Amino acid sequence: MHDAQHHPAPGGPVVARESAAAAEPLAGFTVGITAARRADELAGLLGRRGAAVVHAPALRTVPVADDGQLRAATEEIVAKAPDIVVATTAIGFRGWLEAAESWGLGAELLDRLRAAEILTRGPKVKGAVRGAGLTETWSPEGESLAEVLQRLLDQELAGRRIAVQQHGEPLTEFVDALRARGADVVPLAVYRWLPPADPGPLDRLLDSLLVRGVDAVAFTSAPAALSLLDRAGRRGQLGAVVEALSTGVLAACVGPVTAAPLRAHGVEVVQPERFRLGPLVQTLCRELPARARSFEVAGRRVELRGHAVLLDGAPRAVPPAGMALLRALALHPGRVVSRADLLRALPGGGRDEHAVESAMARLRTALGEPELIRTVVKRGYRLAAEPVEPTELAEPHGTR
Questions:
Q1: What does the alpha-carbon distance between residue 332 and residue 335 come to, in Å, rounded to a whole number?
Q2: In terms of Cα–Cα distance, which of 250, 221, 256 is closest to 59?
Q3: Of 48, 190, 287, 342, whose CA is between 20 and 30 Å from 390?
Q4: What CATH number is associated with residue 273?
Q5: What is the model's pTM?
């Protein structure tokens, strides 16, 4: 196994450090991440727990500080102070203040915000508000905009002025609900989410997902989930991607808002109770090992993970062809599997049974325990999970 750690970059997939320590819960698993922001942090958390990480940004954040609409809305807020401010994201709130400062409106805007009731969607934006020397009035337990909206609708809104900092896409339903109650709403679009400038990494992640080359995909925002599904649709693969996320590849979301686009397609997701990166990684550390296949072979405990085998708890990196053979043998531990059946199990198939023999030799080398797989003369191979059959070779690592 390699021991170098790389940092995600928009230019392509990245494999994070994979440790040989038996204590690492994600050793042998590959996790795709779609985040554009905080990707280094998430990849580091996963890598330190043994995972290989494929980074494929599903979107990009485009600031609109030079957008005339944002400046006009900010001037409107400065000219007529809001009663309520809804802050939805830390990056957006900070970006708004920075843009206002660049226009010479920073001090005046802060004065208006100090006099307003500030509702923050979650702890990250709460930190940004406090970092600006302001104090939030309220923040929801579940970090959901739906809770923020309900909080507002529970009070009299007629004639009240509400500034809503949007988070990458128009909050049309949110704004319309407030206006329907008589509020004077000023939307503030600080940045926009767009598809990645280079879709190559995302395409490669989708390709890997379709062949189960990743064990899980971690989503940290609803727009990223939507972007991945949209890209799959543009490639004519939406149904196949949804099936892969429903049947073999674990979809892990940081919270219910992020999960909503996937659930709309019938994908079951896992999510932490606390909507943070750390708990998201902990959820993967719990869920992925629980889904791994494990069994006893020749007195050894074997656990099949995505790109590695845990042998008595110690990870052994195995090439893709070897993993395919091992999974085929593990369907019925101890039973003979013919070379023809193993040939069909190889990725992309193979031209002749020599491909099986070559892959089997590499598999035995990778495991470092050749006696775990026995060659059965003129029949095939089997895991050494039962007494040796009379027709087996005396030398367990023969390759005929």
A1: 6
A2: 221
A3: 342
A4: 3.40.50.10090
A5: 0.70
